[in-house]
Amino acid sequence: MELKFRKGQNFDCIEGCARCCQAGWRVTLEPAAVQLVREHYVGLPVLQDKDGRTLLEREGDDCVMLDSQRLCRLHRDFGVEAKPLTCRAFPFILEPTPNGVAVGVSFYCPAVQQNRGRPVSEHLGELARLVEKTQPQPIESTPAIFGILKIRWDAYEQLEDRLDREIGRDPGALGRILWRLGGWILAQKSRPAVLETGDLPELLCGRRPEAREAQWLAWLEELFAAALVGAVEANVPEQVWSIQDDLARGGEVVLGRLGWRGTGDELKACLPDLVLPSSEVTRYLRELLFRKHLVSEGPLLANLMLLFLLPRFLAVYTALGALARGAPGAQAEDYWRAVDAAEYHLFAHGRKASELSRHFSNLFLDQLSSRVSGWRVVSPGPAAPSSVADAK
Question: pLDDT tier at 49 (50, 70, 90 boundaries)?
């Protein structure tokens, strides 16, 4: 299959970085790598057999194959092709589609964040070998939107292309398309349907939400983004909602990963002055689109909801990072820490948001149903609550 690349994205591994070797991931070894490890690293407690797989052990979050110079022993001693396929693939994310394999990258990688190195397309040879060896599962030609509703692939490609063009110049595009897609879903009245290219003009260019409808979307964005912070910071599922509630009501909250104890009111006080690097937010959003976040896992509506919430999550987590440092304002390090949290826990490498995004989608449709009749919105409905706390 043809490999497809996004222009403008670069990558070359930073020697001694070892971010991916210290992330706490469990790496499955192929038979050749198992044999190599058993023959040459007898003194290391390196292997663990589990559920029919052989895994590399860890020392805390560090892979046991990481040496004192932060280099992989397998790579150092036997070359890159001796490494497990999982390790060779990082930071690439391969998504086979009906029209070729989209080659995305993980923004958990510092070189990707810095856009450092050669264009991703110049890794073509290694990537082609990885596709051949890993045989990633293709995306369906009619991905799910919600329940029994689906979208034709040609319509999806046009939707993705439009979002890619709109994201950088219109921050409200994601919310408007989410709102219109919800209207289309409700119009089907639980009957099987496939969204065709003929439906796209209404979805992409239909009426904009009125003032109260836009206020309602902003309220949902604030509420759900606080829950995403809870998902990242919670040690047990029940904490997600207590963190969300504390942030929303201005109460005291303890965030262990960030190392911050404060109040939701402190967070709200610093958000109005926060300025995110808009070009970097756009680059990240476009990368998520390109690597088929909307359709690769789970229904399109839930994934679009998560994409809609991402800028708000990044803003909140960036502000919290600055508060945790005791700094008067946010810096670049706070923004990239927020991106790390998003990629590790919510997008590329974690599934903490998968159930949440479905829950959000159901709540969104339940509330939207009181505001629409058929395909077009006919009434803005009651005013949205003045704050997240009022809605609880």
Answer: confident
Tokens of 28: 């499955």
* Neighbour-count burial for 224-247, b at 16+ CB within 10 Å, e otherwise: bbbbbbbbbbbeeeebbeebbbbb
Question: With contact defined as beta carbons under 8 Å apart, do 304 and 166 qualify?
Answer: no
**87-129 pLDDT, tens digit each:** 999 999 999 999 999 999 999 999 999 999 999 999 999 999 9
* Predicted local distance difference test score (pLDDT) of residue 372: 55
DSSP state of 345: I
- Rounded CA-CA distance 56/52 in Å is 13
Residue spans of the domains in the chain: they are 3-134, 209-391
Cα angle 267, 268, 270; round to 5: 70
For 123-161, the pLDDT digits (tens) are 999 999 999 998 888 899 999 999 999 999 999 999 999
Task: Name residues whose C-beta falls within 8 Å of residue 2's C-beta, 6 or more positions apart in sequence.
Answer: 99, 100, 101
- Asked whether the beta carbons of 310 and 285 are under 8 A apart, the reply is yes
pTM of the predicted model as reported, rounded to 2 decimal places: 0.91
For every residue of 41-72, DSSP letters joined together read -TTS--EEEETTEEEE-EETTEETTB-TTS-B
Q: Using 50, 70 and 90 to split pLDDT, how confident is the model at 311?
A: very high
**Residue ranges in 53-152 assigned as alpha helix (H):** 73-78, 85-89, 110-113, 124-134
Q: Environment class of residue 92 by beta-carbon count within 10 Å: exposed (0-12), middle (13-18) or buried (19+)?
A: buried
Tokens linked to 265 = 């009111």
Specify the pLDDT at position 168.
Answer: 85
Q: Is the pLDDT of residue 41 over 90?
A: no
Of the candidates 332, 336, 225, 218, the one whose C-alpha atom is nearest the C-alpha of residue 275 is: 332
Q: Are 105 and 91 in contact (CB under 8 A)?
A: yes
In whole angstroms, give the CA distance from residue 88 to residue 78.
13
Closest CA to 36 of 76, 64, 9, 74: 74
